[in-house]
Design brief:
heterodimer; A: alpha/beta; Rossmann fold; 6-stranded parallel sheet; about 25% helix; B: Rossmann fold; 4-stranded mixed sheet; 13 strands; about 45% helix; binds iron/sulfur cluster; Lactate utilization protein C (chain A); LUD_dom (chain A); NagB/RpiA_transferase-like (chain A); FTHF_cligase-like_sf (chain A); electron transport (chain B)
């Protein structure tokens, strides 16, 4: 009996018998450069109703602390950070510091997560996590309700093709463009369904 | 769950009433025009949009014209990354594979990300036969499911429910299938979304097995991509231990860089956003992060039939953005049910006959044959299609195939010739009437074909899915296909305006 694999491949080959296998070339156009790339990125992220702040490298820790204080005003919130974060978040639990990392249930009891990112896409206002050091496993930026994400000016690229060039397909990735959203009730846009309902992006300007 | 709405008659009377409701029609028209305007705005800001479309079409065309090479490559890349690759000739084979994986893990439930492919194969019903519950996880689906209800529109399936009704449904029904809604629930959309978040979170946190589709599969790297809005996709792709993805063989793209034109084209065309809120990619198994057992089911189910059609092959470029649905004057009137398939609208009118074949005997074949006539050939669908599928060209081609298929019937020669001409328009009711007769009782058998019964006793045509962020990835109950051809339905109801109870 022919395997499903062989049969499907056989059907494909007979479907394509006599077909010119080369498709017309058409390379994707690049957009015109914008003068203030980082500013453009910040504007576009803000458009999705994320909170966006810019700071200097020296002010990073204070800016993140203020962001957490703003979203967790009573000071009792639990914060998780990934291993390999390049700055300090006082009081935060480090995921996987000893052992395999927090379970999904444990993460559900965490109020906020602070991470870095891999790439920022200016044109689309997108943050790409590749879940490397400083970004953590996918679950830690998914289950907690507030995500403070630090993007550095040098990580911002003009558009999607530039981002793909910088990224390694072998890594899992999460492309985030604002908080999750739905318009399923009376076409009313609601930010935040299953992902973090608050996205706070800290853009660190060039030193 | 009850089929009786608060203050409303039981189904199907309620559905008929709803369809005739001018307020509902107003809502639907408002929805499509809102989405059209959003799309136009974000497409308008891309100066090179036409070049981008050409590039998107070229990527998909390159993949299709060398599909065997890319599929073999995809299998190699996936396997090298620890994924298990399965091949499924048809729906039954695919369903069996998914059920086996779930059973191997002793799972009696799976969480699902909206996916057209799993709707197409009727996966949820097949899993139910194995005693496995499939939880669809997008908000609109939840409202429709809990309301024991039928979707009113593919794009905004819960548009017929106002916020007060959604609150009632959540309060009444959530407790029956999981975490109840809080007693102090208000009718603010954000509060209602919050209740859905809590209700579904319980399922996400405990689920062992998740099922997804994929928007794209990269042959070179073995990377799968899911595009979505709400984050339920991320939940399914991240938290469970086991992930099974059912991927149509036409989803393959050659290289990682090829994602570029498509990731720029899809969200703008679909939900009218520069980018959808969440796009997830994964490449086999990543130790310590996400599902540690990853399966990919490569599905044919008629795709190779479409591939063999030199004119129709381009339909396999479709990235399920739903722009052609929103642009279509026929679709706007009919709202999708009349197509009797998980693939409605202009693309459905060509994809269904291409995948199932034209000129098949029997009522089901006749229903399929009627679909290429569900168009006025106005060309709006081609203009908005991000991968430049010339839907009118394929429609005309399929009409002539339908005629050829019925050549042994009572077809007047001149009529057959006329049908081959592009000018053969939807507006000519005499000629369309002929097709309708050729199609006979069209569709009655479909109500028995792979369908299920919804709570409340009415029949449902499986589910329909919208792409992540868009209408196409939504997993929604559809009423059973109409027991009449599209054309017959149109004439009887004056294009839906005089709707008094179809399906
Ligand atoms: S055929 Fe329709 S759904 Fe498919 S890509 Fe084109 S416009 Fe989008």
């Amino acid at each position: 009996m022919t395997s499903a694999r062989d049969e499907i491949l056989g059907r494909v080959r007979s479907a394509l018998a006599g077909v010119d296998r080369t498709a017309p070339e058409a390379s994707a156009p690049r957009i015109a450069p914008v003068p203030d790339l980082v500013g453009h990125f910040a504007d576009r992220v803000e458009h999705y109703r994320a909170v966006v702040e810019r700071c200097t490298p020296a002010d990073l820790e204070a800016t993140v602390a203020a962001a957490l204080a703003r979203h967790l005003p009573d000071g009792s919130g639990r914060v998780v950070v990934p291993a390999g974060l390049s700055f300090e978040v006082p009081g935060a639990v480090v995921d996987g510091a000893d052992g395999p990392g927090l379970s999904a249930l444990e993460l559900d009891a965490v109020d906020a997560v602070v991470t870095e990112a891999a790439v920022g896409v200016a044109e689309t206002g997108t943050i790409v996590l590749d879940h490397g050091p400083g970004q953590g496993r996918r679950a830690i930026t998914l289950v907690p309700d507030r995500h403070v994400c630090v993007v550095r000016a040098e990580q911002v690229v003009p558009d999607v093709p530039d981002a793909l060039e910088r990224l390694d397909a072998a890594r899992p990735m999460t492309w985030i463009s604002g908080p999750s959203a739905t318009s399923d009730i009376e076409l009313d846009r609601v930010e935040g369904v299953h992902g973090p309902r608050t996205l706070h992006v800290v853009v660190v300007d060039h030193a | 769950m009850s089929a009786t709405f608060v203050g409303m008659p039981a189904f199907p009377t309620a559905a008929r009433g709803a369809l005739a409701d001018t307020q509902l029609r107003h809502n639907l028209a408002h929805a499509t025009s809102t989405i059209r305007a959003k799309r136009a705005a974000v497409v308008g800001e891309v100066e090179e949009w036409e070049e981008l479309r050409l590039a998107g079409a070229a990527v998909k065309e390159a993949a299709l014209r060398d599909l065997d090479t890319h599929l073999v490559r995809l299998e190699e890349s996936l396997t090298a990354r620890g994924a298990t690759v399965h091949w499924a000739r048809d729906a039954a084979e695919a369903n069996e594979i998914v059920a086996r994986v779930a059973r191997d893990h002793g799972a009696d439930e799976v969480v699902k990300v909206k996916s057209m492919a799993t709707q197409e194969i009727g996966l949820n019903e097949a899993l139910a036969e194995h005693g496995i519950a499939a939880w669809e996880t997008d908000l609109a689906e939840l409202i429709v499911q809990l309301g024991d209800d039928l979707p009113s529109h593919i794009l905004v399936p819960a548009i017929h429910r106002n916020r007060a009704e959604v609150r009632e449904i959540f309060l009444r029904a959530m407790g029956d299938v999981g975490r109840p809604a809080p007693a102090d629930l208000t009718d603010e959309p954000a509060v209602l979304a919050g209740a859905a978040r809590e209700h579904l979170r319980e399922k996400f946190l405990r689920a062992k097995v998740a099922v997804s589709g994929a928007n794209f599969a990269v042959a070179e790297t073995g990377t799968l991509v899911v595009v979505e809005s709400e984050g339920n996709g991320r939940m399914c792709l991240t938290l469970p231990e086991v992930l099974v993805s059912v991927v149509g063989i036409e989803k393959v793209v050659p290289t990682f860089a090829d994602l570029d034109p498509l990731l720029r084209l899809l969200p703008r065309s679909s939900t009218g956003e520069r980018m959808n809120p969440y796009t997830s990619t994964w490449t086999g198994v990543t130790p310590g992060d996400g599902p540690q057992e990853v399966h990919v089911v490569l599905l044919d189910n008629g795709r190779t039939r479409a591939l063999a059609d030199d004119v129709g092959r381009q339909a396999l470029r479709c990235i399920r953005c739903s722009a052609c649905l929103n642009a279509c004057p026929v679709y706007e009137r009919t709202g999708g049910h009349a197509y009797g398939s998980v693939y409605p609208g202009p693309i459905g009118a060509i994809l269904n006959p291409l995948m199932k074949g034209t000129g098949r005997p029997g009522i089901e074949g006749e229903q399929t044959d009627s679909l290429p006539y569900a168009s006025s050939l106005c060309g709006a669908c081609f203009e908005v299609c991000p991968v430049r599928i010339d839907i009118p060209e394929v429609l005309v081609h399929l009409r002539s195939k339908v005629v050829d298929g019925h050549r042994g019937d009572t077809v007047p020669k001149a009529e057959a010739v006329a049908m081959k001409a592009a000018a053969w328009s939807f507006g000519d009711s005499r000629r369309l009437g002929w097709v309708e007769k050729a199609s006979g009782v069209a569709g009655r058998v479909l109500t028995r074909f792979g369908r299920t019964t919804l709570p409340g006793g009415r029949s449902a045509a499986g589910r329909i899915a919208g792409p992540g962020a868009s209408a196409w990835t939504g997993a929604r109950d559809l009423p059973a296909p109409p027991a009449e051809s599209f054309r017959a339905w149109w004439r009887r109801t004056d294009g839906g305006r005089g709707e008094e109870g179809s399906s």
